[in-house]
Design goal:
The protein has 115 residues and is of the alpha/beta class. It has a single domain, classed as Oxidized Rhodanese, domain 1 (3-Layer(aba) Sandwich). It starts with 7 loop residues before the first strand and ends in a 17-residue tail after the last helix. The mean pLDDT is 92. GO terms for molecular function: transferase activity.
Length: 115
């Protein structure tokens, strides 16, 4: 699969309101810190759980994010080949954090972070 052909957007180009975001990182990465409102489906689980994406609006792209952009490029390529309109988020959650976008975590009392 050629990931060079995957549509890509920078974090700065993402809509600040109503963005459909799919996080394909592993559970520990998600728990440490993720974008509010994102849906979490680890990359390895995506083929088996793709039906969960049916709740996403079908008139907007699905922005796919991981830590730095590699896994999300794989997921976006697979989703596009499966008929979805998917866009890889360049730089992943590292860029999300650098851009000052909000983070939430699952660990009580700990500040959210990007692992």
């Amino acid at each position: 699969m050629n990931f060079a052909d995957v549509p890509t957007a920078s974090v700065a180009d993402l809509p600040t309101d109503g963005c459909t975001l799919l996080d394909v990182r592993e559970h520990d990465e998600w728990s440490a810190g993720h974008a509010p409102g994102a849906v979490h489906i680890p990359l390895g689980d995506l083929p088996a759980r793709v039906d969960e994406l049916a709740r996403f609006p079908d008139d907007r792209p699905v922005y796919v994010v991981c830590r730095t952009g590699g896994r999300s490029a794989q997921a976006a390529a697979w989703l596009n080949a499966s008929g979805w309109d998917a866009v890889n988020v360049a730089g992943g959650m590292k860029s999300w954090h650098t851009e000052g976008r909000p983070l939430v975590g699952e660990h009580e009392g700990a500040a959210p972070e990007v692992l």
